[in-house]
Sequence to fold (170 residues):
Amino acid sequence: MLAMQLPELPVGPSLEDVRGPIELSSGYGLWQILLASLAVLLIAGLFVWLYLRSIKQPTTPIDPAAAALSEIDAAAQAIDDERCALICANAVRRLIAARFDVPATSQTSSELCSRLPLDPDKREGIRSFLERCDRVKFARQALSSEQRRELMDTAKQLIHRLQGEEGRAA
Fold:
């Protein structure tokens, strides 16, 4: 076997002037650790706050009759007769839907009245009220201020009567 001979190294700088590794600080300062901990706690607190805020708080149920009466009171501020009749009719319809579990807002007045579990005279009162509202809404029948007030009073009376039907509807 032939022994291979390595070439000679070139002459270079001497190793006597070479310094050792540079020392870096060995860790973080106390203030840096405290600042990082505070940042982590703030971010964790933010997530906890967002989670707790997203949980639905139990709400107090609104009485459908009280909501309907407040809608009727708002109808007094309506600019035109159609809007007033619409608000009054919808208030009564929503109360009927809540009390009797019928789709009152998606039925015609005749369909709704025929499906109500009420005695015929109460059904007829609701039917005549809703038909009067329909005439104002769709036939654009004008109302005097007295007729408008009477329409809202009739709606309030119906709401009070339907409120009394709550126990019998179940």
About this structure: The radius of gyration is 40 Å. The first helix runs from residue 30 to 54. Residues 64-169 form one domain. The helical segments are 30-54, 64-75, 81-100, 109-115, 120-138, 145-164, 166-169.
